[in-house]
Amino acid sequence: MAPTFDMPELQYFNVSSPAEYVAHVEINRPDKLNSFFQAMWHELRQVFETLSISPSVRAIVFSGAGEAFTAGLDVQAAAQSGVLAANSGNSNLDGARAATLIRRQLLEFQDCITAIERCEKPIICVLHGYTYGLGVDMLTCADVRICSDNTQFSVKEVDIGLAADVGTLSRLPKVVGHYSWVKDVCLTARVFGAEEALRVGLVSAVYPGKAKAIEEGIRWASMVASKSPVAVQGTKELLNWSRDHSVHDGLRYTQIWNGAALQSHDIPLAMQAGMKKKKPTFEKL
């Protein structure tokens, strides 16, 4: 099925529409195991910011083309330019000024990854093969995670001499709620597999092979896309807000949010369809 959403020309991502109101985003650099360099970060943000506001999209499947989800950072490219380069252009600056430039670059990288979490539409991340470093940063931004049985995970950053700096250390503890395990995998950079990821709650399910995992991801996204977009997007927003605030603040925010959302025509439409045992059809949002 051809995409029905307005997407700019892309070089490092494929975006398709495998089902009504569903977008499938694939990282598309398979010859390099989908490893990332700077241009890909910015294109990633462009993709998710576009899908976030597209009325033709209600749910998103996120995976990688080829064998790997992503091997993480393209270390060779990073060594030639950017904050990790040996000669990054900061050598003649004093410490405070060099630090300011690095901080600004890190803020830009963090914002590109956070675009996944910031997306209004629910995202199911389908993991397969290598899911290293930046792959973990991205999967922790998704709403739901599933994987194939051959997936290998690693919070790889300490092996290249740095602390993970674009999301894993902030989000992973909240995703799994198991600080001892989080510190184990982050401090050692050890590789762990699909069954361990399932056991600690990093993924919701494990499937035999990438094709089956993608199929299940599309099935899940299609089910979510069939529901009221007002209800679905509101649920995501309220869950994310409540994760980062107290119960009292979460309840208060829900009052304000639903003060507007409860005025939707989707509510009587869904209730009437339920009583008549029919599938409701909701307007675009």
Written description of the protein model:
Helix 9 packs antiparallel against helix 10. Strand 2, helix 1 and strand 3 form a beta-alpha-beta unit. The chain is 47% helix and 14% strand. A 6-stranded mixed sheet has the order 1-2-3-4-6-9, with helices on both faces. Strands 5-7-8 form a 3-stranded mixed sheet. The chain has 285 residues and is of the alpha/beta class. The protein is built from 11 helices and 9 strands.
Q: Major sheet: order of its strands?
A: 1-2-3-4-6-9
The tally of helices reads 11
Distance between termini?
A: 21 Å
Low-confidence stretches: none
Classify the beta-strand content into a percent band.
5-15%
Taken from the alpha-carbon principal axes, the silhouette is globular
Report the average pLDDT across residues. Answer: 93
Helix/strand-derived category reads alpha/beta
Question: Which series of helices and strands comes N to C?
Answer: EEHEHHEEHEEHHEHEHHHH
In percent, how helical is the residue content? 40-55%
Largest sheet: 6 strands, mixed
Number of strands: 9
Query: What quaternary form is this?
Result: single chain
Radius of gyration using CA atoms only: 20 Å
Index terms:
alpha/beta, six-stranded mixed sheet, 47% helix
What's a concise summary of this model?
By secondary structure, this protein is α/β, with parallel strands linked by helices.
